[in-house]
Every structure is written in C-alpha cells, then in structure tokens.
Amino acid sequence: MRKLKGTVKETAKQKRERKQEFAKMRQQINTIVIPTFAVIFLLICIYVYFKTRPTSMQYA
Q1: pTM for the whole thing?
Q2: CB distance 10 to 18 below 8 Å
Q3: Which residue, 7, 18, 35, 48, is the most exposed by fewest CB within 10 angstroms?
Q4: In whole angstroms, how far apart are CA 31 and each of 8, 37, 42, 45, 51?
Q5: Could you tell me where the Basic and acidic residues compositional bias lies (predicted)?
Q6: How far apart are CA 47 and CA 40, in angstroms?
Q7: Is the backbone of residue 5 left (phi > 0), alpha (psi -120 to 50) or beta?
Q8: Domain residue spans in the chain?
C-alpha cells in the first residue's frame, strides 16, 4: 500500500492537546528553568567574588 505525500492533517482535538502541552512547557520554563539558571549564576558570581577579593596582609 502506498503512502500519501504530505503530512496528515491533525484534528481539532489533537491541535488543542498540542497547544496545551506547549503552554505547559512554557510555564515550566518560567517556574523551573529560569530560577535554576539564576541560582547557578549567583553561585558563580559569589565564587568569583570570594576568589578575587583582596586578602588582608598581616605583617609579623
């Protein structure tokens, strides 16, 4: 049996489900991914700050 050329047209139900999945993924990006990157960036900044700050010199 031969296959038809082109893509299969999706139904209204499939389109609605796809849009709901896309909206859920966008929400997860805002609630999980961005705060995670912010925390990692903050930890890197704190690490660099403590490694590059001048140390007090004590003379005996």
Answers
A1: 0.59
A2: yes
A3: 7
A4: 34, 11, 17, 22, 31
A5: 7-20
A6: 11
A7: beta
A8: 14-51
7-59: pLDDT as tens digits: 778 899 999 999 999 999 999 888 998 999 999 999 999 999 999 988 776 66
CA nearest to 37, candidates 29, 47, 48: 29
- Residue 55 is classified by DSSP as P
Cα separation, 12 vs 44, in Å, equals 47
Amino acid at the residue 13: K
- Write the CB contacts of 10 (distance below 8 Å, at least 6 apart in sequence): 18
Tokens of 31: 């609630």
